[in-house]
């Protein structure tokens, strides 16, 4: 019986603690817990906002377009507002990490320079298996926004 009481007590304490944490987040203005993940997922019809790959709802990670740690540079703005939250695949979210969007764009553009130091990459390049293009890095959501604007859907 003592074991059952102990287990129940742990559950009650855990529930109480999660309520405290939730209240603490709410008091500090963290509204991410109330964010509608489905709304974020549907923002780009189930695609990663950055690379454009199709992702499932379960695979989606919510990325802060403007990184959380920079929120103090936007006084009066909530960092968890819907326009700052992007549906992201795991690879893009992990690689972008804490970078500002333009920093990440530059980092992505440097990828080919880094790859040229790899012998396997150079061999594949020599044998024509891959081709280097000088295409600018344009995120999927930017491509969509341009299409909408060009087809009369923009302001």
List the helices and strands and how they pair.
Layout: H1 2-27, H2 37-42, E1 61-64, E2 85-88, H3 90-96, H4 101-109, H5 111-115, H6 119-126, H7 140-150
Antiparallel strand pairs: 1-2
Describe the structure.
The protein has helices at residues 2-27, 37-42, 90-96, 101-109, 111-115, 119-126, 140-150, and strands at residues 61-64, 85-88. By secondary structure, it is mainly alpha-helical. The chain folds into two domains: 1-30; 31-150, no CATH class. A two-stranded antiparallel sheet has the order 1-2. The radius of gyration is 22 Å and the shape is globular. It starts with a helix and ends in a 5-residue tail after the last helix. 12% of the residues are buried.
Structure at a glance:
The chain folds into 2 domains: 1-30; 31-150, no CATH class.
């Amino acid at each position: 019986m003592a074991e059952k009481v102990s287990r129940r007590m742990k559950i009650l304490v855990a529930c109480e603690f999660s309520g405290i944490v939730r209240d603490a987040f709410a008091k500090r203005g963290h509204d991410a817990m109330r964010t509608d993940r489905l709304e974020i997922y549907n923002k780009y019809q189930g695609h990663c906002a950055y690379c454009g790959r199709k992702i499932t709802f379960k695979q989606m990670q919510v990325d802060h377009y403007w990184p959380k740690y920079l929120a103090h540079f936007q006084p009066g703005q909530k960092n968890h507002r819907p326009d700052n939250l992007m549906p992201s695949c795991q690879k893009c979210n992990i690689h972008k990490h804490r970078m500002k969007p333009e920093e990440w764009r530059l980092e992505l553009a440097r990828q080919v320079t880094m790859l040229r130091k790899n012998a396997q990459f150079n061999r594949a390049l020599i044998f024509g298996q891959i081709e280097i293009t000088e295409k600018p890095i344009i995120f999927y959501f930017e491509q969509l926004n341009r299409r909408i604007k060009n087809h009369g859907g923009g302001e």
